[in-house]
Design goal:
With about 525 residues, this protein is mainly α. Helix content is about 40%, strand content about 10%. It has a three-stranded antiparallel β-sheet with strand order 3-2-4, with helices on one face. Helix 2 packs across helix 7, helix 2 crosses helix 15 and helix 8 crosses helix 11. The longest helix has 27 residues. It is globular, with a radius of gyration of 24 Å.
Length: about 525
């Protein structure tokens, strides 16, 4: 499929303008191993909790800890994992049998991410060179910190961060020591190991250059998270493949949520990305319903349909899957400009000349995807006990009236966990009683329960849309949302949602805000 020149240019303009309007750097903090890339931070959700970059801090560092995955799911019945079947795709867009093989020049990047996903847990990590990605200085283990009962979760995170910082300082000192030498004569132990790491690195100042904070990077392990992702993927993967086949797209692309969220229904980033596909708000609104009662980014199947349509646009603009997948993280307009500037559509070549054009996340996004394909294709090799959760089956009901949270819970016998699991797209404000689910929205019930649920809905009184309750605050000159949120002890995200703020950076003096309780 090829969009018209006008549509391509218009969509590119929308993306660029959206990024300009909503750009605000922050740390991501969900399950993606690439969290921390400021290029992905195009919507303000919560104030940054990380310390600002220092000489020992790389802004591309992954977080030192990850949030817990979603709680126990109220559907029983694990089933055996099955290897993927990618046959029958002769008519898929841009597809050849070798479409998703590792491109020449990217072998080391992919191997690095295979190790991160399979060899290191989220209680472990490595310090490595961001340019020569497989140059690993030190391996860290946080198990002792995690086991301390006398520390709170926040204190454990700070202890982990301190260990990373101290180890970076030690690495930098050793590299500076080696930078003063012209040969390895007399070196032994760790000094000699470090020297040998740079055997294939050229340049007179190779050791000194490696001490730059953008080069010295921390990466948290992901093996336990990836194993959980394989388990969770069983709920939706076959239905997701069906959607991509209907859209005429390669079904390998349905494995991207392993990179983005590990198929965690509760995946949220501090910069506003949400759902298993981690759509940012601006992009999500192009394809999905998002209001103050529903957020379809968190509906795994509707978000999958949206991802398929976004991939079609990316491919129509870039015409190769390595570039189109990278554009899912970097943006298609920026990718196309880089292709035109460098006169090549070879991703490996673009990475070689990137010179700051990609952040670490964008530069490694396709390699992460290929690593995820390799691991999931051979899950029993990497995770011998791999199992799938029971497939999630549901039926949709379009509401003919506004329904409160209590009305929804009646459909599930008052079981909050079950109601939320079948309706992950329902906004948290509804569950808190602050909003109602609006008429014409869709809700979901288990297979076989649609008819009795519709009878119950017909007995419910139509609820009036509610105003958010809370304290009123008049914006003063110089105020920021972060300042106001801190003053009232709430999150920026809560204020943005409560007041339907489209541009968090466009506050004006005298504006009235509702501060949610």
């Amino acid at each position: 499929m090829r969009v018209t020149k006008f549509y391509s240019q218009f969509f590119s303009w929308l993306l660029v303008m959206g990024a300009i309007l909503t750009l605000s750097g922050s740390f991501l903090a969900n399950s993606s191993p690439l969290d921390g890339d400021p290029e992905a931070a195009i919507f303000l959700n919560e104030p940054p909790t990380e310390e600002p970059p220092s000489d020992e801090t790389n802004e591309d560092d992954a977080p030192v800890a990850v949030d817990e995955m979603e709680p126990n799911i109220p559907i029983p019945g694990d089933r055996p994992w099955e290897p993927p079947n990618y046959a029958g795709q002769a008519n898929a867009l841009g597809y050849q049998p070798a479409t998703f093989t590792v491109p020449a020049g990217m072998e080391e990047r992919v191997a690095f991410w295979v190790d991160i996903y399979t060899q290191y847990s989220t209680n472990q990590g490595i310090l490595h060179d961001s340019k020569y990605i497989n140059l690993i200085y030190e391996k860290l283990d946080f198990s002792d910190i995690q086991a301390r009962a006398d520390l709170t979760d926040n204190q454990k995170v700070r202890a982990r961060r301190a260990r990373v910082k101290d180890t970076k300082k030690m690495i930098k000192e050793r590299l500076l020591k080696l930078s003063k030498l012209s040969e390895a004569t007399g070196l032994e132990g760790e000094d000699l190991r470090y020297w040998n790491l740079f055997e294939k690195v050229e340049g007179k100042d190779r050791f000194k250059e490696a001490t730059h904070r953008k080069r010295l990077r921390f990466q948290l392990g992901q093996s336990d998270r990836f194993a959980q992702g394989i388990h969770y993927s069983g709920r939706y993967l076959r239905q997701m493949e069906g959607i991509f086949r209907e859209e005429g797209l390669p079904i390998e692309l349905t494995r991207l949520p392993f990179v983005e969220s590990s198929f965690n229904l509760k995946a949220r980033s501090r910069v506003g990305a949400s759902g298993i596909w981690q759509f940012m708000p601006y992009t999500g609104r192009q394809f999905l319903k998002m209001n103050f009662s529903v957020d379809e980014r968190n509906d795994p199947l509707k978000a999958t349909r949206a991802a398929a349509r976004l991939f079609k646009i990316n491919y129509s603009m870039l015409e190769t899957w390595p570039l189109a997948v990278t554009a899912y993280n970097h943006g298609p307009a920026g990718m196309r400009r880089l292709v035109q500037k460098e006169n090549t559509n070879n991703l490996a070549e673009l990475l070689d000349v990137r010179k700051g054009r990609f952040g670490f996340a964008s530069a490694n996004f396709y390699a992460c995807f290929l690593a995820a394909l390799e691991i999931e294709r051979n899950a029993k090799k990497y995770f011998p006990n791999a199992m799938w959760m029971a497939e999630h089956k549901r039926e949709a009901i379009q509401l003919d009236r506004n329904v409160s949270n209590q009305g929804l819970l009646e459909l599930f016998g008052g079981d909050v966990d079950r109601a939320e699991f079948f309706n992950p797209h329902i906004h948290s404000f509804v569950w808190r009683g602050w909003r109602v689910v609006q008429q014409n929205s869709e809700i979901y019930v288990p297979m076989g329960e649609r008819e009795p649920a519709m009878v119950k809905i017909a007995s419910l009184k139509d609820q009036k849309p509610q105003r958010m309750e809370g304290e009123t605050y008049r914006v003063q000159s110089g105020d920021t949302l972060s300042d106001i949120a801190s003053r009232f002890g709430v999150t920026v995200h809560a204020i943005v949602n409560a007041n339907e703020i489209a541009n968090p950076r466009a506050l004006r003096a005298g504006q009235k805000l509702t501060i949610p309780k």
